[in-house]
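Subject: design request, 221 residues
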């Protein structure tokens, strides 16, 4: 059953509490938090104070932290201590990725590895059975509101086939360019967690209603 993960990158931060509570009211079980360092990617976003605020507002929600940073190992202990449940970091920034996966597990987190659109999922073959999830970027990492990159559907499908072939329960999270027209098809292709920012928070509709509607679209898959 696929799940929606509203991304706070598109929140109105003057209304953070209200918008997060509305997302929870609509049925959101996962909240996605993008951490960008201004170096691995050109944008700069949230740090520990925002994570702590999200955890305080939503004490029981699963917080999914996406580290778009150099040296992701430096952040793992602090983010898990302050409430992150899931942590993904970029393979492209982490030649020691296997030991970082171990570090996340040791500290009680659920490990994921994020891949930029041009990085084949086969690079993860040696550690796939140790990952809680694979985080596939379907836009170039760094900015919200980008257009979905055509062809990423095939990457999702082939990774899902490999997971099934191995008899694993690994989740596939996709991130970027999700819209009303493609969200259901992406779940059909094998995405089990779908991060969405502007699709959830940048519409005129009530956020709770929006989350409920999108979740119902993808729930059957």
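Subject: RE: design request

Done. Sequence follows.
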């Amino acid at each position: 059953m696929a799940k929606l993960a509203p991304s706070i990158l598109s929140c109105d931060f003057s209304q953070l509490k209200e918008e997060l509570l509305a997302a929870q009211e609509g049925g959101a079980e996962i909240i996605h938090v993008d951490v960008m360092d201004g170096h691995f990617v050109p944008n700069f976003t949230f740090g520990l104070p925002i994570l702590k605020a999200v955890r305080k507002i939503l004490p029981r929600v699963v917080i999914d932290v996406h580290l778009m940073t150099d040296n992701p190992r430096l952040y793992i202990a602090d983010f898990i201590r302050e409430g992150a449940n899931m942590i993904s970091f970029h393979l492209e920034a982490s030649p020691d990725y296997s030991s970082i996966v171990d570090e996340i597990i040791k500290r009680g987190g659920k490990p994921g590895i994020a891949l930029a659109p041009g990085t084949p999922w086969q690079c993860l073959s040696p550690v796939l059975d140790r990952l809680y999830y694979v985080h596939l970027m379907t836009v170039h990492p760094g900015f919200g509101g980008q257009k979905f990159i055509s062809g990423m559907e095939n990457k999702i499908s082939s990774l899902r086939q490999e997971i099934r072939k191995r008899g694993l329960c690994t989740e596939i999270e996709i991130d970027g360019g999700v819209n009303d027209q493609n969200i259901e098809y992406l779940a059909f292709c094998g995405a089990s967690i779908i991060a969405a920012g502007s699709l959830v928070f940048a519409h005129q509709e009530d956020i709770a209603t929006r989350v409920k509607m999108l979740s119902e679209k993808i729930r059957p898959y």
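The chain has one domain: 3-218.
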